[in-house]
Design a protein that fits this description.
The protein is about 65% helix and about 0% strand. The protein has helices at about 15-40, 45-55, 55-65, 65-90, 100-125, 135-155, 165-185, 205-220. Helix 1 crosses helix 2.
Length: about 230
């Protein structure tokens, strides 16, 4: 007897349907990310996401098993994008024709921005009980890649470093910037209610003075104004 059971719908593999499916999923993740970052995980419902994405709850469940899997997908995408951005930041080709001071300024600005984003993500992440292991690994990898990549970039330009021991100087600069940026991002961490002395300075002043500090220590020129 011939088995007349229907096989899988191979139409899924058509390029047009695949592209549309990816667009639909991206729109849902965009909506979920906006709502989660604005209201937190607990206050964000699948119905809210569907409404913001211009979709329906049933369609959401075609792409995600449940709310938890959707939330994990949001965080995993953010982690993947963070890692990709860090890799691009420390790519030597990106800084061709730039000075060591330019590299340091770009790193400080990037770290200040992403540091605040990471702070918000950590706060939101405390609501999660089952964050994807791969997501955590990607966030950790981005942090490691940032430090390793900057170290390699700086040491590749040793001729621009006037400090007698470039390797030691670069190691100290990495620690110094990490501590300064962390304190800037988390101004009250570990200091009780004491107001940090630099809290009254805006970000531009912070970037300028942090850059002056590390450039002076490395004995490399401060970037010229455009």
């Amino acid at each position: 007897m011939t088995d007349k059971r229907r096989g899988p719908d191979l139409g899924w593999f058509s390029p047009e349907r695949r592209v549309q499916a990816l667009k639909n999923q991206a729109a849902m993740l965009d909506a979920a990310q906006d709502l989660i970052f604005q209201n937190g995980v607990a206050a964000t419902t699948v119905a809210d996401v569907a409404k913001k994405a211009g979709s329906s709850v049933s369609t959401i469940y075609r792409y995600f098993e449940d709310k938890q899997s959707m939330v994990n997908a949001v965080f995993d995408r953010v982690a993947e994008e963070t890692l990709a951005t860090v890799i691009a930041l420390v790519d030597p080709g990106r800084w061709a024709g730039s000075t060591l001071g330019d590299v340091l300024e770009g790193y400080i600005r990037f770290s200040l921005s992403t540091g605040r984003e990471q702070r918000r993500l950590r706060s939101i992440g405390r609501e999660l009980t089952d964050m994807n292991r791969l997501t955590r690994e990607r966030f950790d990898a981005a942090e490691r890649q940032s430090e390793i990549g900057l170290s390699s970039l700086l040491l590749a330009r040793q001729e621009e470093i006037g400090h007698p021991d470039p390797e030691v100087a670069v190691a100290f600069v990495l620690e110094q910037l990490s501590a300064m940026i962390e304190r800037r991002v988390e101004p009250h961490a570990g200091v009780g209610n004491r107001r940090p002395k630099l809290a009254s300075y805006d970000d531009e002043q912070f970037v300028t003075e942090a850059l002056r500090s590390v450039c002076a220590y490395l004995d490399t020129p401060f970037p010229a104004d455009d």
